[in-house]
Amino acid sequence: MSSTADAFMLFGTREVEEPPIRLKAGKLTADLSEGNLRTITYDGVEVLRAVSYLVRDRDWGTYAPRIADLVIDQTDDAFSVSYTAHCHGPQATELAIAVRISAGASAPLTFEAQAISTSGFETNRCGFCILHPIVGVAGAPVTVEHADGKRLDTWFPDLIEPWQPFQNMRAITHTVMPGVVARCGMEGDVFEMEDQRNWSDASYKTYVRPLALPWPYQIPADETVTQRIILDIEDTRAKPPSVPADLEPRPILLTPGERRGGMPAIGLLVTPEEADAVLEAKATLSDIGPQELLFHFDPAAGHGADTFKRFAEVARLHAGRSTLEIALPCKRSLDAETLEIAIWMRDAGFKPDAIIISPSVDRQSTPPGSKWPECPPLEDVYAAAKAAFPDIRLGGGMLSYFTELNRKRVPSAPLAFISHCTNPIVHTADDLSVMQTLEALPFITRSVRSIYGDKPYRIGPSTIPMRQNPYGSRTMDNPHGARIPMANSDPRHNGIFAEAFAIGYVIKVLDAGLECLTLSALTGPFGLFAGQDEPVSQGGRRPLFKAVRALAALAGCEWLECDSSNASQVLAFVAKAKEGPVLHVVNITSTEKQVDIGSFRRSDKLMGGVLALSPYEVLSVALAD
Prior knowledge:
Layout: H1 4-11, E1 21-25, E2 28-33, E3 36-42, E4 45-56, E5 66-74, E6 78-88, E7 94-104, E8 107-116, E9 121-123, E10 125-132, E11 141-146, E12 151-155, E13 166-177, E14 180-187, E15 191-195, E16 204-208, E17 217-219, E18 225-235, E19 252-262, E20 265-270, H2 275-280, H3 282-288, E21 292-297, H4 305-317, E22 321-328, H5 334-348, E23 354-359, H6 378-388, E24 393-401, H7 402-407, E25 417-421, H8 431-436, H9 441-452, E26 457-459, H10 496-509, E27 516-521, H11 544-554, E28 558-564, E29 570-577, E30 580-587, E31 593-596, E32 610-613, E33 618-622
Parallel strand pairs: 19-31, 20-21, 20-27, 21-22, 22-23, 23-24, 24-25, 25-26, 26-27
Antiparallel strand pairs: 1-2, 2-3, 3-4, 4-10, 5-6, 6-7, 7-8, 8-18, 9-17, 10-16, 11-12, 11-13, 13-14, 13-15, 14-18, 15-16, 19-28, 28-29, 29-30, 30-33, 31-32
Helix pairs in contact: 4-5, 5-6, 10-11
């Protein structure tokens, strides 16, 4: 990053992430970032996505510890790291974690932590978290060693598991590449794995303290909690011949793929709180031309009859379709609640084309081992909705995330379509992790299709900021515009980063055949207009505006797949727009990338050459018919 001004345009904040420190021990490399290890590779292949020591609060928020006494020793073939991390909790409680990390060319990678509190410390989880990557790993063989010493030869889940695929673990072993096997041992407690693709994280997460145990819990005062992770890598390959290093990195190659389909309709969220602002922005609404407006209605949030008067005004401005999502309180008779809403809608002259209905309580997650909250049978909810709205298309699913839909699978027979959302900052919020969530989207959509077949399918609203928190009592306020998990505002929503994320999101879900995709609101904190001191393009618009308007213009067009030689850095697709085919390319990294489009013929009849894409740049290239 050349300056904080550049960072402001890219990320919506002048705060620049501290670059990681690259550690090396023989063929093993790891990035040290905020005291934890990221992108652990062996001979250039990712072995583990991360090994982190994390402390969670009672709302599953992650503490950002203060690191002191950091010492890094790097030699030619080994490294060691030591430091002490300090967490400050409510009521003046404190936790100190003494950490030592080491690895050598012929020695395993070891990450040891000793936590102690002089005051006692409340937490939902305190300990190690190990992330295995998903691309090239999903569906692959794995050996799990249980706490009792028994071994299980099995496979990493391919379709997303709603519950923990592996429990009572002390080690996990998988093949990194032919002839290279990695064993990750875990000491100091019993570990289990969850399939983090549920939350669109691009990883399988092995973590300490089973979810079936009570939380939050107390770490007693003056009691030391010791844990250790040991990564052993066995390389049985014959020594490869010496190959001269390629000093010049090759451009990322884009080539035409074989799959094709139709571009989804694009929706925009409208909340009661933003309805008046949407009315004032009617010219912009027409300029964008979304196919769908998604109106949100939640009686528990104080939404009532007057809400539908404003919704009706907005709907009259919109030439496309409209859908009402209802968080049904389920506190009275289902028939009474749904009929009351129907009467309010009729009296206001508001008649959407479709309704998505879900019990309000289903927005709250039910982790393994927890008691499901009281909720009427979904069949009864849908029956009441059909009676109250007999001539309106009825959809269902979850107003929260795929996680909740996967754990509580709704009866689909009464429904015309299935819907859910995603959010990329549930567990962590650094730039790399947010963009890596795109890798999980094809697994989510394929898992939905495996459950619901060819039922029409919608996603959204799915934004970088978190609209609601199913895993705690609240979303996190973010007054200083930091990168924090579970935040109800995120600076990157205001920057070029969000535009790249939106285009990458669309590319990753194209194959799902979505009926509609909603990636933002029109106005407000999840919208397309910038507030004061936010980076803007023309007319006070966030960079995301350009992506949403372009995608709305492409709705219904045919898309053609593009293969990328490095899909973790550059993504692309071809859309057969009215004016002809267009190649859409996006750099999803923070560094410039060279992209070879020589396999495509441009509209000027020249073969495409090599493009230089700046960080998070979205580029469109007109192609010949």
